[in-house]
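Hi everyone,

Forwarding the result from last night's run.
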Amino acid sequence: MNLTSDLPWENLVVKYFPFAQFYDYTKHLKRFVRFLEGKLPANYHLTYSRSEETTDAMVIALCKSGGNVAVVFRDHLPKTWLGIEVIDGDDSDLRFQDRKGVIVGLLEKGLAKKDETGFVVEPC
């Protein structure tokens, strides 16, 4: 539902459609922690979006807590990153079907191909 925004859809339309499954990405840590704690609607799934400001320790902690973290990689997806399994996030958009505690690997696209901020990760 969010692509470049980070609107709290769980407070807006999700509750009006209890039989639909929603999924989304967020860069808001407190919001993601609320999801991990089961404090968001059951039909609303969140994946944390790593940014250049996200520490490796935070990625590891979120995955160990059962959350999934989306990471953009340059050129190819590694099998693991930071010791955590990487799944192909470009294979399907159905994030709510992903196993828990994994890195959702996405390949760089568009302007991200020229990124030098640290948003795009150089796999080993």
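The chain has a mean pLDDT of 90.

Cheers,
N.
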